[in-house]
Amino acid sequence: MTPDITSIQADLRAAKLDGWLFYDFRGRDPIAQRILHLPEAMRTRRWFYFVPANGNPGKLVHKIESGSLAALPGETRFYAGQDELRKNLSKLLGRAKKVAMQYSPKNEIPYVSMVDAGTIELVRGAGAKVVSSADLVQKYEAAWSAEQLESHLAAGREIDRIVRGAFELAARSVREKKTLTEYDLKQWILGQFEAAGLTTEEGPDIAVNEHASDPHYGPMPGTSAPIREGDLLLLDVWGKQKRPRSVYYDVTWIGSLGAKVPEKHAKVFAIVRQARDNAVEFVRANIAKGRPVQGWQVDRIARSVIERAGYGKYFFHRTGHRTASIWMGWRRGTCAT
Q1: Number of helices and strands in the chain (H, E)
Q2: What is the spatial distance between Cα 256 and Cα 234, in angstroms, rounded to a whole number?
Q3: Fold adopted by 144-260
Q4: Can you tell me the distance from the alpha carbon of 293 to that of 5, in angstroms, rounded to the nearest whole number?
Q5: Nearest by Cα to 323 from 252, 248, 246, 238
Q6: For residue 332, what pLDDT is reported?
């Protein structure tokens, strides 16, 4: 599988960019590897791959690893020392004056900030202005194929079933006065994942009472809390199918373990539900009118509900994150920055 150079070049022209310069050293930029569909290989030296807005792509690799980008189209240039690297990087860029790289001004989006400052200086020294590739990355990393959408929906059906089963297990344990800890329930869910053909890099997060207020809480053996009658129980569960490029499904629910839901639990749940519903309606209404929607706008809609209810100072994380084929370590709506 090779990158869609034609599509990338069309996007570069639309963005009024002269090219997209990919760079990596010892696997530091997994974004480049995924977008370029690079096969596994030993790459211990720096390499560059330049896709111009018009014309043919080009490669710059170390002479020790002359075939490291052989799977990609384009002419190959080589280097062995710093002088040769600088000279051939200038030739690779040609007349390009404005190029995108995996760079984020002031590191505002750390997930796309893969290129080190020294390499940025090197490219600028070759006469090119470096801008962020974030919008390009979003298209090639976050857009799903039909198969990926189906993988997401299929994982969702299984995870929703497992979450219901987890709440039922917790309720049964309370009724029968059996000991069940947060960690026990986590292990039960992971067992259900295995049986359903699902996988996850981390989690799930199972939290009772005050633990639910910690966005990064994860139960550990020996220290996790027991699940008891009257507890607030939060389940944050995410996973995907065990096949390449399948997409994660991520869901969080809370429940109250008792005959009656405490008034405070019900009040807070209603506030959060309203925030969610307002955010979803905002997206639907704007999409229906053909208006583009950005994440910060949706966040503001949801956040305003929480703030008006008087809980703004406790709401210190973002309200959403992307869902993709890799897990980025985000928790319960937290976009880590």
Answers
A1: 9, 10
A2: 9
A3: Creatine Amidinohydrolase (3.90.230)
A4: 27
A5: 248
A6: 33
The answer to whether 132 and 105 are in contact (CB under 8 A) is yes
**Residue where the block lists tokens 């067992």:** 191
Say what the pLDDT of residue 244 is.
86
Which regions of the chain are under pLDDT 50?
Answer: 327-337
Amino acid at 19: G
- pLDDT at res. 58: 98
pLDDT at 315: 86
Residue range(s) of every CATH 3.90.230.10 domain in the chain: 144-260
Q: What residue ranges of the chain are covered by domains with CATH 3.40.350.10?
A: 5-141
Residue located via tokens 């509900």: 305
Question: Please, what CATH class does the domain formed by 5-141 belong to?
Answer: alpha beta
pLDDT of residue 323: 65
Is residue 17 within 8 A of residue 99, CB to CB? The reply is: yes
- CA dist., res. 226 & res. 180, Å (int): 6
CA dihedral over 43, 48, 50, 56, signed as positive or negative:
negative
**Dist CA 39 CA 33 (whole Å):** 8
Tokens of 148: 């990926």
Torsion over CA: 330, 288, 135, 296 (sign): negative
Indicate the SS3 state at residue 114. coil
Take residue 277 and report the two structure tokens written for it: 């519903």
Structure-token pair, residue 226: 């027991």
Runs of H (alpha helix) within 143-237: 146-175, 182-196
Angstrom distance (rounded) from CA 162 to CA 241: 14
Residue 199 near residue 218 (C-beta atoms within 8 A)? no
Query: Model's pTM, two decimal places?
Result: 0.81
Give the angle 105-108-112 at the CA atoms, nearest 5°.
Answer: 80
From CA 186, how far away is CA 205, in angstroms rounded? 7
